[in-house]
Amino acid sequence: MQVDATMRRLRLLITILVILLSSWALEARAQDAPSSSEYLIKAGFIYNFANLVQWPQNAFTQADSPIVIGILGEDHFGVTLDRVLQGKKVNGRPFVVRRFKSVADLAQSVIDLKDCQILFVSSSETAHVTEAIQTLRGISVLTIGEIPGFAKRGGIINLVLEDNKVRFEVNVEAAKQADLNISSRLLALAKIVQHPVLDGRKTE
Question: What secondary structure letter does DSSP report for 142?
């Protein structure tokens, strides 16, 4: 009975995701930018990840502190991410979007990163992935990338394009190291990275 209930919840989640992604795609097609559809969908994924990841209590300074999303590198979202998150809350927490131009900019704000729960690493930072991940070591930040091999290099979630569709990979061990609890419902839809890279070295 429990298995049946779990499967029903999983099917419901998949249905909800399909409906949401379809609506976002329709909205994107009404825009002119060729990449708008991709980043509208990615913005939707980020919002859903926030719903399906649990942070430790000390990740927030106050009970009503916002969920802060940082964007590292070139911002391909424009205002799309802000629009998708506008008016939305998770567990009563609103969203705030911050932008970091480079890893150096990120490092200078490392103290403030205790108030940052999600960091999206842009494809423009491909050469600096390891440096960015090391900067966040010991901080409960959900790292999300769009870079080949991002999850294997220690990132937590990587968004990838397969057959013109956005899919995602999850590095479970990296999530544990960041003290983040990822819902089994999310993991059921992900490609799990089996051989994560920790501290710059590949595990056996």
Answer: E
